[in-house]
Amino acid sequence: MPPSPFRSLLLAAAMLTLAACHTMSAIVPPNFRPPENPTNTVDLARKALDDATPCCGSFADLSYQDMLPWQPQRFSLDKDTPVANLNGDRSYFLAFRLPAGAQMPYTVAMKAELNGRWLSSSYLFAPTVVLLDDAFQPLHAEDIQLCEYMGWTNETTGAFGKFKVEDDKARYMVVYSSAKQQKGQTYWEQSPSNFSAEAPVKMAAAGSFKIPHGPDGVLFVGMQNDTYKKAINNAVCDKAQPGNGVISTIREVVTTDILGAGQAKKDASKKENGS
C-alpha cells in the first residue's frame, strides 16, 4: 500500500527536523557546548599529582639553572613537570636564580590562567613564593593573592599577583603551590554559566563567584613590566563593599573638594547641632 500524501509529509518533516538538529550540533562552537565531565577535571589533576614520584625533598635539591625572566614569561606546570615535596607540601614547581644586577627592591609579577574552557569547571594554579639565600636557606615565604583583571587581550586577562624582592641576601626564588593555596579560591567577577540541552547556546548565570585552586595550570612569572603593573593595579581582589549611593558620594566630593574642608566642618557641625 503506497504511503498517503499526509504520511509522506510527516516523514519529510521528521527528516528535516533530525537534519536541523544534527546541523545545529555541528555548527555550535566547542566552547558553547556543554562540558562532558564538568566536575572531575580538578580531581583528575589532583590524582596525577598524588601518583607522581617527587624528585626533590628540600630547596637545596632543586636545579636553579634558569634565570628569573626580565619580563613575565609563560610556564606550564602539569604532569610532565617535576614534583617536589617541600615541608610536606607536594607540588609542581619552578626554580630561578635571581638577577644579580637588578636594582633593589624590585617586583616579580605573576599571572595564572584559567585551566579549562568552562568557567563553571575551571581552576587556577595559585603560587607560593620562597626566597632563598646563597646557602638555599629560606629568607621569606608567601602565598600570593591572585586578583582578576579582564583586559582587551589574552596577555592582560587572568588572575594577577605580585611579590616584592627587598632582601639583598636573596639569591634564588622557588615558585610552587602550598597545600593551603591548593585548597583556596580566587574571587572572579564573571559568573559561571549553566547550559540547557534544549538550547545549547543559551547561557544562564549561576553558581558562586569563586574559582577554586588546583594543583596544575599555566603561570606567567617574571620581572614586572608596565602591562602587568597596570593589570595588577586595576585588578579586582574581592567583591566591592556597598556604598552610600551616588548622590551621597557626589555630595561628599563637592563639599570637600569645591567648598573646602572648612565648609565641610561647618556643615558637619550644623548637622550635629540639628540646625
Note down, in words, how this protein is organized.
This protein has 275 residues and is an alpha+beta fold. It has 2 domains: 32-234, no CATH class; 244-275, no CATH class. The protein contains 6 helices and 16 strands. The strands form 5 sheets. A 5-stranded antiparallel β-sheet has the order 1-16-5-10-9, covered by helices on one side. Strands 4-11-7-8 form a 4-stranded antiparallel β-sheet, with no helix packed on it. It has a 3-stranded mixed β-sheet with strand order 6-15-12, covered by helices on one side. A hairpin with an 8-residue loop joins strand 9 (147-149) and strand 10.
Enumerate the spans where pLDDT stays under 50 for 5 or more consecutive residues.
20-38, 192-205
What average pLDDT do the residues reach?
78
Element order: H for helix, E for strand: HHEEEEEEEEEEEHEEEEEHHH
Strand content: 25-35%
- Give the strand line-up of the largest sheet: 1-16-5-10-9
- Specify the overall morphology: globular
| Cα Rg | 27 Å
The number of helical elements comes to 6
The helicity comes to 25-40%
Secondary-structure-derived class: alpha+beta
Per DSSP E runs of 2 or more residues, the count of β-strands stands at: 16
Overall structural domain count: 2
- Describe the main β-sheet briefly: 5 strands, antiparallel
The separation of the N and C termini measures 98 Å
